[in-house]
Amino acid sequence: MFKQRIAAALALCLLLIGPALAAGPKLKPGDLAPDVVGKTLDGDVVKLSAYSGKVIVLSFWATWCPYCIKELPILNNIQTRIGTDQLAVIAVNVEERKVFKQARRVLGGVLNVNFAYDPDKTGRENYGVDGYPHMAIIGPDGHILRVYRGYGESMLQTIVDDLNRALQAQAEWREKQSAAARSGPSR
User: Fold this and answer.
1) Which homologous superfamily is 25-183 in?
2) Could you tell me if 18 and 11 are in contact, meaning their C-beta atoms sit under 8 angstroms apart?
3) Per-residue DSSP letter, 142
4) Alpha carbon 179 to chain centroid, angstroms
5) pLDDT tens-place string over residues 4-25
6) For residue 101, what are the contacts with CB-CB under 8 A and spacing of at least 6?
7) Ranges of each domain in the chain
8) What angle, 0 to 180 degrees and rounded to 10, lies between the N-to-C axes of helices 66-82 and 156-183?
9) Confidence of residue 179 (pLDDT cuts 50, 70, 90)
């Protein structure tokens, strides 16, 4: 009887925490950002390391998510204003290839952000995505600065403020890198 109760309690615990475990890690500020976020339509792996030294806005989105669709032009405007030398916006679609391909065709002519999709859920698992929209701001050193889950328009100013802080930190980071390069190797 006692063993049956323990087995039932363990089964209940697995049922309750299983979805949380399946969603992947809950990244927090200071964590090193996982490198792999998705794939291109050609099947090439999209890695954050390709954008080293830039602030990265990583947004997981779906066509059925109204705020996600509303957010993409805003991210595009930010990308255009800041420039690709300082900022990389990566919009990772979470739907099947056919849907992503169609969305990419429609949005690609209008938006100048980096598009990817996540066919094998690697990006979602790496970033603990369990709802949409889901965004991470990543510093030029590859560390998470902020993660937003299930946000809306009321968070827009906070996101802009955090992005401005990230860009300021990037300028300071680049200055340190430049100073270190000028001074040469330490002895």
Assistant:
1) Glutaredoxin (3.40.30.10)
2) no
3) S
4) 30
5) 444 333 333 333 333 333 445 6
6) 41
7) 25-183
8) 40
9) confident
